[in-house]
Each structure stands twice: as structure tokens, then as C-alpha cells.
Specification:
Layout: H1 7-20, E1 25-29, H2 35-42, E2 47-49, E3 54-57, E4 60-63, H3 69-73, E5 79-83, H4 92-96, E6 101-105, H5 109-121, E7 127-131, H6 136-145, E8 153-155, H7 170-179
Parallel strand pairs: 1-4, 1-5, 6-7, 7-8
Antiparallel strand pairs: 2-3, 3-4
Helix pairs in contact: 1-7
């Protein structure tokens, strides 16, 4: 919904959770941020395919050119996690076409105003809402304010390293996985332990 609210962190954390659950998954940066392109200049990566605009970092395949989508789909991952960035930074149609749609927001007044606007615009759509940086004391009240989207509302915990699967968010990720309309042949396996 807003810049710096944790959309990329949540997308990468969910991708890591899906990997942990036994699925092959990739992350696709479908926004204007260019974060993935910056990683090789800052960190040692495992693999870089410039022709496909892809890097492998911390065992996650990450693509930074959404216009290569046909080639990416030929890789036949079990799940493709798209990061559309700030809502509605891009065309809304590609977001709405996905099997599972997640909107990441915060609980500051201006962030909640944006969330309520999105709720109005997308009222009839099946969307999951993840709130970042939300005090535990106000979470239940915030969930109530989501009305009929209450069961689709989740809260993330602090994840200082977006590439290390956060055990603190296991409830969030398991809840999102329940809403994933996964049609692949392989089914996620239930795992009890998380790396911290």
C-alpha cells in the first residue's frame, strides 16, 4: 500500500516459507524498485543469468525483468511469487489475475486510510491482508475493523533479515498457505521446525 511498508520482505519471506514446505518457488520483482538488480553489487550471489535477468541468492531464484515472464514460466516452478510494490503503482489487472493476492499495509493512520481505500476498491475480491509493524495491543481491534475480511487478515513480526525464514511468522505463513489456490502436482509438506 505504501513505500517501505514491507511488501518485498513479506514476498521473500513467503517464498522462503514455500521452499521450506518443499515447493520449488521463485520471486519476481514486478515493480520499479530494482532491488534485485542491486544485490550482486552488495553481496556474493550463487548464480547470475543476465540474459534471463535472474540471480540466485540464498537459494532463492529472483527475477528482475517481468517482461521475461514467458521464459520464467518455462522454468516450471511450483509457485511464482510476484512483488508488485506499492498499490496501485502498476496496472491492477496483473495483480488481480494471480491465484493468491496479498496486500501489505501498516497500522499508522495514513496507512490505514490507504488500506480502507483498497478494501472499497477490491471488496468483491479474495485478498489477504498482512499488516507490518503493528503493535500487539491493537491487533484484535484492527482485525475487527476489517469486518468481513477479518479471516483474511494477518500480522507480521519483525524480520531483520528478509532472506532468513522467520520462525516468528510461522502463523502468518501457514495462514497464507491455507489461502493459496495451488494447482500444481506437488503438495506442500507440513514442517514443524523453523530456522530462526
Amino acid at each position: 500500500i505504501s513505500p517501505r511498508i514491507g511488501t518485498t520482505t513479506q514476498a521473500i519471506q513467503f517464498a522462503k516459507y514455500l521452499q521450506f514446505s518443499g515447493l520449488s518457488v521463485c520471486y519476481i520483482e514486478a515493480n520499479e524498485n530494482h532491488h534485485v538488480e542491486e544485490i550482486p553489487s552488495l553481496y556474493e550471489i550463487q548464480y547470475h543469468d543476465k540474459a534471463l535477468s535472474m540471480i540466485r541468492f540464498q537459494d532463492l531464484d529472483m527475477y528482475y525483468n517481468v517482461f521475461k515472464i514467458a521464459e520464467i514460466y518455462r522454468k516450471q516452478y511450483d509457485v511464482y511469487v510476484f512483488d508488485f510494490g506499492v498499490f496501485p503503482q502498476n496496472n491492477l489487472l496483473p495483480f488481480l489475475e494471480k491465484n493468491m493476492k496479498v496486500v501489505v499495509s501498516g497500522s499508522k493512520p495514513w496507512e490505514l486510510d490507504n488500506t480502507m481505500q483498497v478494501l472499497k476498491e477490491l471488496q468483491d475480491k479474495e485478498i489477504q491482508y498482512v499488516f507490518s509493524f503493528t503493535e500487539k495491543a491493537i491487533r484484535e481491534e484492527l482485525k475487527k475493523s476489517m469486518k468481513d475480511k477479518r479471516e483474511n487478515t494477518f500480522f507480521s513480526e519483525y524480520s531483520p533479515n528478509m532472506f532468513a525464514l522467520s520462525g516468528a511468522d510461522k502463523t502468518l505463513h501457514a495462514g497464507l498457505l491455507e489461502h493459496l489456490n495451488y494447482t500444481g502436482g506437488k503438495h506442500p509438506r507440513k514442517r514443524r521446525r523453523f530456522r530462526k
